[in-house]
Amino acid sequence: MRIIVDAMGGDNAPQAPVQGALQAIREYGVEVVLVGRGEAVLEALHQEGVAELPRGLSITHADQVVEMCDNPATAFKEKKDSSLTVGLNLLKNGEGDAFVSAGSTGALLSGATLLVKRIRGIRRAAMAPVVPTGGGGSVLIDCGATAEGTPEFLLQFAFMGSYYAERVLGRPEPKVGLLNIGTEPSKGTDLQREAYQLLQRAKEEGRINFVGNVEAREAVEGAVDVIVADGYSGNIFLKAVEGTGLFMSRQMKNMFTRNLVSKLAALLVKDGIRDFKKLLDSNEVGGTALLGISKPVIKAHGSSNGRAIQNAIRQAVEFRRSAIIEDITENVDHMRLPARSAAGDGNGD
After folding, report:
1. Tens digits of per-residue pLDDT, 128-175?
2. Which residue in 10, 25, 94, 337 has the most C-beta neighbors within 10 A?
3. Hey, how many other C-beta atoms are within 10 angstroms of the C-beta on 338?
4. d(CA 299, CA 143)
């Protein structure tokens, strides 16, 4: 399997992509194509003690870089020789099995949508990170790709998230919940109420295991395997979880370093502390899958280190092997509303 990696994307590029690629080749037996400024990539390899390209690693030169200050909607067009644009075109042309980037989220989403294309019938691509929850992690879909949703978007997110939870997380008949302010079907805005009816119908048809509305508190406790949300609500939920994790980590550090007794206590529970920190470490997760795109695309965190890029490559491999895209393609007709109900979307494929 060949994974295309944006070597210039992210705060720690190109060093982190190079480190992640080298480790992924060793551990997963994959081929990696690093896309970016050749001299910079070679220098990063030299800093890792690599004088010659190892087997399984290749470089595709791309002279430009999409910066965070660039317009995300047009950057991939305006910088056609950027590592992001060149990498996505390689994926589009079948010269790789998946694409990984820690660069601009907006530019990646726009480029993937317009170059690689959405699966026919899918209205919007969605970002689907696995967030830490009491159930061992839950798929959150969407977390910011589409701020303003429609009931049909949420219906499609539910299907795609369910396939991802089953295929990648190994959850048979994953429980799907609609993020809301209460569990009653009447709760929420028109968006949530209408989406609830669509999801309930999909459940009655035996297509997804919809368990109803889920409040943020229960979602964090692991009540569901898939948390369905519009991008606006989902992003707030994600940032709240991340912020709470950081707060708890700081509080634990202060608590266990207060005095000699607390430091001794920390030694007794150090394994548990390590596991807790690992659970909240974005570098261990790797990245976020863009679901709804016709080929696997993974968005790694902008501050990703080498370990994070390695895990993002692992995630890309799992995504490619999972056959999720085939599942979505085969079942897309069950995720769509009649044409008159979807009017005004502007993207009726």
Report:
1. 999 989 888 999 999 988 888 899 999 999 999 999 999 989 999 999
2. 10
3. 7
4. 12
